Amino acid sequence: MEVQQFYYDNKIVKKFIIATMFWGIIGMSVGLLLAFMFIFPGITEGISWLSFGRLRPLHTNAVIFAFVGNALFAGIYYSTQRLLKARMWSDALSNINFWGWQLIIVGAAITLPLGFTSSKEYAELEWPFDIAIAIIWVAFGANLIGTMIKRRQRHLYVAIWFYLATFVTVAVLHIVNNVEIPVSAFKSYSFYSGVQDALVQWWYGHNAVAFFLTTPFLGLMYYFVPKAANRPVYSYRLSIIHFWSLIFIYIWAGPHHLLYTSLPDWAQNLGVAFSVMLLFPSWGGMINGLLTLRGAWDKVRVDPVLKFMVVAITGYGMATFEGPMLSLKNVNAIAHFSDWIIAHVHVGALAWNGFMTFGMVYWLVPRLFKTKLWSVKLANTHFWMGTLGIIIYALPMYVAGFVQASMWKQFNPDGTLTYGNFLETVSEIIPMYWMRAIGGSLYILGAFVMLYNIVRTARQGSSVEDELAEAAALQPVTRKRTVGEAYHSWLERRPVKLTIFATIAILIGGMVQIIPSLIVDEYVPVISSVKPYTPLELEGRDIYIREGCVSCHSQMVRPFRSEVERYGEYSKAGEYRYDFPFLWGSKRTGPDLHRVGQKYSDNWHLNHMYDPQSTSSGSIMPSYPWIVQDELDKSDIENKMRVMQTLGVPYTDEEIENAQALMTQQGTQIEKNLYNDPDFVSSYEADKKYAEENGLEFTEMRDREIVALIAYLQRLGTDIKAEDLKQVSTN
User: Per the annotation, where are the binding residues for Cu cation?
Assistant: First the structure.
């Protein structure tokens, strides 16, 4: 049999490893800054692009798509070539994948702090980046499939199955969730609204965790753990069950993020059922990974690579046990909107993704540079720093979550809330926020230790960018199953059929959940008094989105006695009919805002945005002086309303033509309301006089951003009337 010589492309792997470390440090540093903002809310006071609401999506995107994304590309490009005994199909596509991905990350790092965001969790980037991501992802997939076609290894190893499922599913999720209509170069509106948008978003959001943070890393686990332990995978049959059951079940679980909301009950219950079932394939994968180390546990004691991987797999097991538990309605009623979810997410991110990445990089770099790890002692030091960092981070967040849930729901004997002031809860958990910051600091210091160790390792080695390899050419075989050949074994040598079956498996759940919600009108009852936002309110809503207010405030009052008592009448599906996108939120650092309209005066909102402590003693909300001072850009309002009209919002052509006048009229009324505060009058008039005397430009209050934001906040939850509640209940 003729043996062919060829070269593995190590250069692309090294590029992705460098990017992984670089963006990892940046993403974690932004996260640490955010953690300290809970303790020192004025740490970046007055700097709009460093405010919490704008940096929070930068942190999540940097950690998920820059750090973890580059890591999975590094691992996939290295392992795929060796599993298929072939160089990547196209060096050009490899480089397009790398440089395109980095440019998207840089674009995100610029635009998100500037406030260009769609506000959708893990999909905040605006429409030009969505198109770019789709193009680069297709380039990656084409390269992967092209390499499979020219492979020299007949059967496809289990890691390749997970890589294929990742490519197909992420493409589907990204495209469906990011259907939007552009308004301008960096502004668009989601094609879906309210309840429909929430379902599509969390179908995407949950499965972004599943198919970007989980399935590719399971593929890496199936490759790198056996390599590091020098042991075969524990069970081939278990890997088959693990793969097919995981990708089929995972796609159904998204609605468990929306329990007790305005989402239809059938969708909520479906999400709960499949989330509970998800425990079995998830733990099947964990067991397969840990039992691969049978006979090699003595190595774990001394090998930092295996230490990281063991904790990573254990973290995966813990997170995938907790996920189904959190999907149970009685548990979710306690945990949702609290810091418990923050703890849950970071156990998965820091332990599973972070530690698996660290272990993989510690294993790869010495082999890529033909040397030994510069310091095993430093790697072990990093391991213990990271492990302690995770513990010190997560445990206080669990405590904070329990404290929040308990205080939010307690009643006095007379039926009033024991802690009626939301800020009482915030004050109680500040010590836990200190502990989180300490744990995060320890974790990132460990990453710096690793960076130093890896750089020294690379410098002492020699770079081999094209690694010589040899393997026999792939011999043609019959397409039919041979006698005695297992069906799955036959499927493993049919990459196209395997891809088609995986695609069908993931499409079923998505179609069953999403299609009915889009075509059955009864799921979103029409409430006659719910009207579209006025032009000024629409602009105010866009400012709310720009500033990331949804990161800290929900707009969903659940049907619990404690929430109705605290916030007002529970939320109805029909109220969100004109919300493009939905803004239900995932976390309550501050109180829910769905019924905040007309609850406070316009002056209160102005003072609250300028100096939150002046209206809410003990608040950890940062100030937003630029909103109070900056002129409102009204130039796009007609385009925005036309896009909304296209999406089904009943704006008339006359309303669109008169948008500027309508905004001035409503703004003038709010300005008059503000004159009720003597302090406002004296300050405002003094500023105006100073501007006139010094020849400076002065923006009338009615034309400032704060007035638009006040208009939006005062509208929230005010449309629904008693007769509408009766109408909805009879429906």
Answer: 206, 256-257
CATH 1.10.760.10 for domain 535-729, yes or no, is: yes
Annotated domain spans of the chain = 3-477+488-514, 535-729
Q: Which of 595, 569, 577 is nearest to 526 (CA)?
A: 577
Residue 439 C-beta-side C-alpha neighbours within 13 Å = 23
Alpha-carbon dihedral sign for residues 497, 499, 501, 507 = negative
Residue 479, pLDDT score:
67
| First CA to last CA distance, the chain | 74
| C-alpha dist (Å) from residue 412 to 26, 334, 560 | 47, 19, 16
Type of residue numbered 414:
D
Determine the pLDDT at residue 475.
79
Residue 715: half-sphere exposure toward Cβ, Cα within 13 Å: 26
CATH 1.20.210.10 is the classification of domain 3-477+488-514: yes
Q: Residue 4 is inside which H or E element, if any? A: strand 3-9
Q: Which residues contact 105 (CB under 8 A, 6 or more apart)?
A: 23, 61, 62, 65, 66
| Number of helical (H) and strand (E) elements in the chain, helices listed first | 32, 4
Tokens of 656: 């669109």
- Which of these, 591, 299, 259, lies nearest to 421 by C-alpha position? 591
Between CA 120 and CA 671 the distance in angstroms is 32
Residues annotated within the binding site for heme b are: 59, 344, 346
Tens digit of pLDDT for each residue in 439-478?
999 999 999 999 999 999 999 998 888 999 999 888 776 6
pTM (predicted TM-score): 0.94
Q: Which residues are annotated as a binding site?
A: 59, 206, 256-257, 344, 346
Give the list of residues 6+ apart from residue 29 with CB closer than 8 angstroms, or none.
444
In sequence order, which residues have a C-beta less than 8 Å from that of residue 478 and are 6 or more positions away? none
